[in-house]
């Protein structure tokens, strides 16, 4: 059946075979060819830009002419510590922390239910139910909340209908976080942030909870632990890496966002808005760059701590 | 491509390893997966590479197919050095351990793949694929997807796919490892028949000594990247060259030098097959010991006797009287059965 | 007590959480039909479909729409090429610097958009590069690479590595293996990655505000309307268009990858 004359080695047919042989002899060559375009792109466009950002932050602006002086100085960083700029940074950090906490609280039941009780079809429903809002248009979602929170919008109408206007007004009159309407108050900003970043908290939390074996919960129950004891001593510690992983997203995203506070909330500035306005209308690119370095530094610190706590296993 | 070397008078062996090594990792502290292997596999043989996992047998197979390149030494296929030849140009095909069937193609397209990439027209290659499918007794399965087949059927598709190119050497990487016992035995017979019918060289890798002994007409036992012994199954089984081979192939008693001497041999490591031992009454024999365990094996019982500070197993055929545990028995054997080994390793 | 049924409290809060995620989007759809022009009054005093026609006839909407489509298409194409290349390299072998490269790919979406945007802005300023469609695409393609990469890597991992070797073993050269084995198996994952990259780019506003200069993509047009409303019902209609333009690619991506282990959206 097999002709004895069949050659042990087949002839090379054309360029494709020759290139195949070259790649086979030098696997690093193929690796290099594959990696070169993306690395050149990311290296030049992205790392190059980050370097430009750092460079700009060490420049300063001439106060009289408004021209960027391309000389190394720490003057621009020193400006960050002016009271008004420090306010912006602290305000941003407080909001990021509050949003992270809010997300964690709302996300937990969803993640817990999806990880432990949802089966088959419902699992898919939960997955899509989190994935669709995560991916769908950011701007449309923010816009939806402007409609909802408007003074003449749904919340006011619902409060009226339920005879709860008193409660709404009471909430809005809380000094510091209240305001004329929800859409111009801190509460509004907070709500929208929580809404927008919530899926980023649910997913890692669910991933962490899915790794808790059911047998462990049952063992805890068998040993006579109540639901709340089981939660405190078993579920929560095991979910913690997921919560930290989620908090990396919610914290970082809140810190860098400038669209939401511009559309919903008081006109007080956040880091993102400061960056945007400084580089745009004010034309102070060095200070804008220095402001943009702040979230990078904070996130680096945050990541270092999170890594120590094992958050990356849950990503 | 014309053969580089003029054809010698004697036919070239199918595969030849000349001091082949394959090292991984840094040159300063390499992991020697294959370490100075010399090997000659005759054309038309059914050759087994036997060894525990990590012994270098699979790396040797991958060196033949071209998925590994030797760090040193050279490999010849039918007399031609293949150091510079990528896998796609070696007329050698492989049945992979996990079958590696193309999940997106029908069974027919899987089998015809080798012909398609060679530019054979669709009619011809479909006909050939059907032929191959019928060779492996899968007529009528051509339209299915691999996912719709059982493990045994996938195995056959992998076989048909590898044979469609009419390779001169077929490599099989633990081909039966994923099958259950009964299917495995049936496939062993089938592979053997198929090889005899096609007349091409089969080289297969296995860690199952029973499989190697029953299927191969010669085999190499691998240990730590080196070949511990090459020979026919009967040679390797009856006369293991080293302690490792005696231990790994079959269930020999391996006797340390002092026990060998007590048994009437030289002061060297030796092996003794359980079936060569007879258990007798304790009186009138040079050796005796205490029965520690028996294990029922169907065709007989394997009785372990403690003697001379070691344990020795004897096979007592079914129907013969079986000594009780704890009884003292004599041990007799044909002195010719005591095989003195060359080395320890 | 830990049976397979969740407590009422848990079920209620999980359901409420999901509703919280979805109901607000429906509000946008409702408002697109309201007869009220000047405010966001709820409930709408009446319903009408006239705003769709009004929006259709607004000349200032079309150029941003075309620009967004163009930018998203080119960015997706670039991200597909670069993301596939890098995932093929990363899966194929272990090499020095591998972890650093995966961090580099992830960074553009791991850091807030304002940083990516401001970095690009700084670079353009230092190098005196004028704003153009190209500067928008530079930014978008950069953060889209990771989307394609994630999808492709997940699929690569799930593929039995043996099939590429099997193809070469059967005589296929690298290009035949790519065309007949790799591409068909990777195809749906790449398509899913491309869909998500398109959705992400089409919708992106933060990085774009730093790289667009005077040009408007559809999200930037929308943002301007939100900050300084001119004709609110038209904004509602555009919001629906933007939503649908991202919703369907996401849904398709989900169906393309749902039988696999890869989660289409992990790490937007």
From TrEMBL, chain A:
The chain crosses the membrane at residues 29-55, 88-113, 125-148, 154-174, 186-209, 229-251, 285-305. GO terms for biological process: transmembrane transport. Residues 89-306 form the ABC transmembrane type-1 domain. One of its GO terms (cellular component) is plasma membrane. CDD domains: TM_PBP2. Keywords: Cell membrane, Membrane, Transmembrane, Transmembrane helix, Transport. Belongs to the binding-protein-dependent transport system permease family. CysTW subfamily. This is ABC transporter permease. It comes from Paragemmobacter straminiformis.
TrEMBL record, chain B:
One of its GO terms (biological process) is quaternary ammonium group transport. It holds the Pfam family ABC_tran. It comes from the Bacteria. PANTHER family: SPERMIDINE/PUTRESCINE IMPORT ATP-BINDING PROTEIN POTA, SPERMIDINE_PUTRESCINE IMPORT ATP-BINDING PROTEIN POTA. This is ABC transporter ATP-binding protein. It comes from Paragemmobacter straminiformis. InterPro entries: AAA+_ATPase, ABC_SmlMolc_Importer, ABC_transporter-like_ATP-bd, ABC_transporter-like_CS, Mo/tungstate-bd_C_term_dom, NA-bd_OB-fold, P-loop_NTPase, Transp-assoc_OB_typ2. Residues 15-249 form the ABC transporter domain. PROSITE patterns: ABC_TRANSPORTER_1, ABC_TRANSPORTER_2. Keywords: ATP-binding, Nucleotide-binding, Transport. One of its GO terms (molecular function) is ATP binding. One of its GO terms (cellular component) is ATP-binding cassette (ABC) transporter complex.
Automatic annotation (TrEMBL), chain C:
Residues 65-253 form the ABC transmembrane type-1 domain. It is found in: Cell membrane. The chain crosses the membrane at residues 12-33, 67-91, 103-123, 129-149, 237-256. GO terms for cellular component: plasma membrane. The keyword Glycosyltransferase does not apply. The keyword Cytoplasm does not apply. It is a multi-pass membrane protein. GO terms for biological process: transmembrane transport. Keywords: Cell membrane, Membrane, Transmembrane, Transmembrane helix, Transport. It holds the Pfam family BPD_transp_1. Belongs to the binding-protein-dependent transport system permease family. CysTW subfamily. This is ABC transporter permease. It comes from Paragemmobacter straminiformis.
């Amino acid at each position: 059946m097999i002709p004895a004359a069949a050659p042990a080695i087949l002839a090379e047919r054309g360029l494709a075979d020759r290139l195949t042989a070259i790649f086979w002899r030098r696997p690093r060559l193929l690796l290099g060819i594959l990696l070169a375009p993306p690395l050149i792109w990311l290296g030049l466009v992205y790392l190059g830009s980050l370097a430009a950002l750092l460079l700009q932050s060490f420049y300063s602006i001439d106060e009289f002419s408004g021209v960027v002086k391309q000389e190394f100085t720490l003057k621009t960083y020193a400006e960050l510590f002016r009271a008004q700029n420090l306010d912006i940074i602290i305000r941003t950090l407080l909001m990021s922390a509050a949003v992270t906490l809010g997300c964690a609280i709302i996300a937990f039941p969803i993640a817990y239910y999806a990880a432990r009780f949802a089966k088959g079809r419902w699992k898919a429903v939960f997955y899509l139910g989190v994935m669709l809002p995560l991916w769908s248009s950011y701007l449309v979602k923010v816009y939806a909340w402007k409609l909802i929170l408007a003074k003449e919008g749904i919340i006011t109408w619902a409060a009226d209908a339920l005879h709860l206007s008193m409660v709404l007004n009471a909430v809005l009159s809380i000094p510091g976080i209240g305001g004329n309407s929800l859409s111009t108050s801190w509460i509004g900003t907070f709500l929208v942030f929580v809404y927008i970043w919530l899926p980023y908290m649910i997913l890692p939390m669910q991933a962490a909870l899915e790794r808790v074996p059911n047998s462990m919960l049952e063992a805890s129950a068998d040993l006579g632990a109540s639901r709340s004891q089981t939660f405190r001593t078993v579920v929560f510690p095991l979910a913690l890496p997921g919560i930290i992983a989620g908090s990396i997203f919610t914290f970082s995203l809140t810190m860098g966002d400038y669209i939401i506070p511009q559309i919903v909330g008081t006109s007080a500035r956040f880091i993102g808005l400061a960056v945007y306005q400084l580089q745009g209308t004010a034309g102070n690119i060095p200070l804008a760059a220095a402001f943009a370095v702040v979230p990078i530094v904070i996130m680096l610190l945050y990541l270092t701590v999170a890594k120590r706590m094992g958050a990356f296993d849950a990503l | 491509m014309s053969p580089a070397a003029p054809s010698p008078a004697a036919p070239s062996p199918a595969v030849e390893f000349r001091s082949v090594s394959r090292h991984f990792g840094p040159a300063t502290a390499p992991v020697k997966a294959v370490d100075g292997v010399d090997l000659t596999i005759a054309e038309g043989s059914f050759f087994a590479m036997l060894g525990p996992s990590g012994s270098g047998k699979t790396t040797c197979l991958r060196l033949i197919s071209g998925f590994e390149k030797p760090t040193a030494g050279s490999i010849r296929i039918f007399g031609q050095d293949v150091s510079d030849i990528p896998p796609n140009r070696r007329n050698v095909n492989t049945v992979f351990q996990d079958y590696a069937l193309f999940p997106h193609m029908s069974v027919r397209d899987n089998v015809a793949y080798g012909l398609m990439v060679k530019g054979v027209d669709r009619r011809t290659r479909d006909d050939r694929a059907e032929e191959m499918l019928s060779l492996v007794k899968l007529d009528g399965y051509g339209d299915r997807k691999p996912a719709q087949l059982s493990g045994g059927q996938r195995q056959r598709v992998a076989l048909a796919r590898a044979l469609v190119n009419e390779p001169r050497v077929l490599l099989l990487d633990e081909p039966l490892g994923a099958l259950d016992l009964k299917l495995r035995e049936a496939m062993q017979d089938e592979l053997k028949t198929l090889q005899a019918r096609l007349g091409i060289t089969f080289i297969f890798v296995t860690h199952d000594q029973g499989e190697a002994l029953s299927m191969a007409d010669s085999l190499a036992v691998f240990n730590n990247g080196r070949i511990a012994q090459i020979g026919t199954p009967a040679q390797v089984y009856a006369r293991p060259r080293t302690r490792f081979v005696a231990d790994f192939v079959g269930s020999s008693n391996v006797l340390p030098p002092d026990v060998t001497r007590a048994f009437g041999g030289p002061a060297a490591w030796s092996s003794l097959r359980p079936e060569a031992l007879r258990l007798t009454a304790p009186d009138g024999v040079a050796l005796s010991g205490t029965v520690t365990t028996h294990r029922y094996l169907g065709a007989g019982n394997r009785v372990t006797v403690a003697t001379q500070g070691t344990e020795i197993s004897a096979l007592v055929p079914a129907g013969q009287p079986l000594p009780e545990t704890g009884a003292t028995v004599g041990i007799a054997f044909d002195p010719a059965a005591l095989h003195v080994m060359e080395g320890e390793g | 007590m830990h049976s397979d049924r969740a407590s009422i409290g848990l079920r209620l809060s999980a359901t409420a959480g999901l509703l919280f995620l979805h109901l607000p989007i429906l509000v946008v759809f409702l408002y697109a039909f309201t007869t009220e022009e000047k405010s966001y009054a709820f409930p709408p005093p009446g319903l009408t479909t006239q705003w769709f026609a009004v929006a259709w006839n607004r000349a200032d909407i079309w150029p941003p729409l075309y620009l967004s489509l163009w930018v998203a298409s080119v960015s997706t194409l670039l991200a597909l090429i670069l993301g596939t290349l890098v995932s093929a390299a990363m899966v194929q072998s272990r090499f020095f610097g591998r972890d650093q490269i995966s961090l580099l790919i992830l960074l553009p979406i791991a850091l807030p958009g304002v940083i990516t945007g401001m970095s690009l802005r700084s670079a353009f300023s230092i190098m005196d590069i004028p704003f153009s469609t190209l500067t928008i695409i530079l930014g978008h393609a950069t953060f889209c690479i990771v989307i394609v990469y994630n999808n492709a890597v997940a699929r690569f991992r799930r593929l039995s590595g043996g099939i590429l070797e099997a193809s070469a073993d059967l005589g296929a050269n690298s290009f035949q293996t790519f065309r007949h084995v790799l591409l068909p198996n990777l195809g749906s994952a790449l398509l899913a990655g491309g869909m998500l990259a398109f959705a992400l780019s089409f919708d992106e506003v933060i990085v774009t505000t730093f790289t667009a200069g005077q040009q408007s993509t559809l999200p930037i047009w929308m943002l301007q309307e939100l900050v300084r409303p001119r004709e609110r019902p038209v904004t509602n209609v555009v919001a629906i268009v933007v939503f649908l333009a991202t919703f369907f690619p996401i849904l398709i991506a989900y169906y393309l990858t749902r039988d696999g282990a890869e989660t289409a959206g992990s790490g937007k």
